[in-house]
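Hi C.,

You asked whether I'd gotten around to modeling the 120-residue construct. I have! Everything is below, sequence then structure, no commentary in between.
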Amino acid sequence: MKKNSILFFLMMALSIHAQFRMNDGHSNLSQPDFTMVEKNSNGRIKSVRYAATDPNIPATAVDFFNSTCIKCKTDSFALDRFQETDYGMRFERYQQYFQGVLVDDGYYIFRFKNGKMKVV
């Protein structure tokens, strides 16, 4: 199980890196100059990559959910799993529930570096 979790997070990180490199051509993705927000066709946030200089970076996942108004009155998010590395990285996965029922593929993964949110 632990091996699968590590593999999952590694694949997710590689996928995000490749997607942003392909989409905007930035060569230095670790320190973007601006916060990038990607939304789906319904206007819901698919991903966020925070600029290092952004003064409005949420401190926690709960702050992110509250500040971006992702949650509806019928939605809730619960910490599903997390992983910390020796390099100051922390990954948190929050599972979505709709009226108490688990939503398949309904989750957000948060990446923190030295306690500061970097990517959702």
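If it helps when you're writing up: The radius of gyration is 15 Å.

Thanks,
B.
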